[in-house]
Amino acid sequence: MAIVLGLAPVTAVLSLLFIGPLLVALAQSLGHAPIYGVEEFPTLRYYARVFGSSRFRIALLYTLYYAVVPTIVSTVAGVALALALRHPIRGSRVLIAVLRLPVVVPYLVGAAVVVALFANGGLIARVLFALGAIGSTGDFPRVLFSAGGWGVMLVYLFKQIRFTFIVVSAALAGDGAQYEEVARSLGATPVRALWHVVLPRVVPAIVTASLLVFAFNFQTYEIPYLLGATFPNTLPVEAMRRFNAADLSRRPEAMAYLMVITAISGVVLAAYLQVYRRWERGRRRS
Prior knowledge:
Strands 1-2 form a two-stranded antiparallel sheet. It is 73% helix and 1% strand. It has a single domain (37-285), classed as MetI-like (MetI-like fold). It is mainly α.
C-alpha cells in the first residue's frame, strides 16, 4: 500500500498529461468532436479515410525510414564511441565534454545549424565555391527538403549519437572494467573480453537508448516538417497538416492519424522488447 501511495502522484500526473489527452483523441477519431462540429460517434469513417489513402501508405514507409535508419546509425556510432572511450586516454575528457554538449541543445537549434551549414547558400557551399570545387553555390548537392531526408537525418544524428554515447557510457562507468580486467588476466583476448564480458553488460543500456530514439523519431513532426520534402513526408506531418486545415471537420481525421501512429509505434516497441527478452533468457540459459 505504501508503494501505491508513493506512486500515486506520478501516476496521476501521467494520467492527466498522457492518458487523458489520448482518450480525448480516441473519442474524436471515432466521431465525437462537437467542438469541431462533428457528432457521429461511433464511426470508423475517419480511420477508413486514413487507411484508404495512398498518402498514408507512403507516409508510413517514410516514417519507418526516418525512425529506423537514424536509430541504427546512432546506436552503432554511439556504442562505438562509448567503447572506444571507456578507458581514459590523453584528451578523452575534452572529447567527452564536447560529445555531451549537444545533448542539451534543442532539436530546433540543431535544425538551424544544419540549415546554416548544408543549405545551397550555406557555409559549406560557400567554402567549396571559394575553393573552386563547385561552379556556384547552387551546384552544391541538395541536402535539405529532399525526398531522401538527409537534412532530417543530420539533425537526428547530431543529437542521438551523443545521447546513445552518454547512456552507454553511464552503463560502462560501473564495475564493468573490473570484469574486463579479470577476463584479460585469465587469458581472454581484448576482442573476446569485449564481446563476452563488456557488451553483454551494456546491452540493457543499448536497448533503452534505441527504444527512446526510435519512439522519438517515429512520433515527432517538427524536424521532418521543417527540413523534409513537401511530399512525401511522415505520418506526424500528415496529421499536423490535417489538424491545421481551415476545415475543422478534418480534425477527427488528424486524430485518427494520431491513434494509428501511437498504435504502430507501440506494437513495434513491444515486439522489439519481446525479442530482447527472449535473447536475454536464452543467454542466461546458455
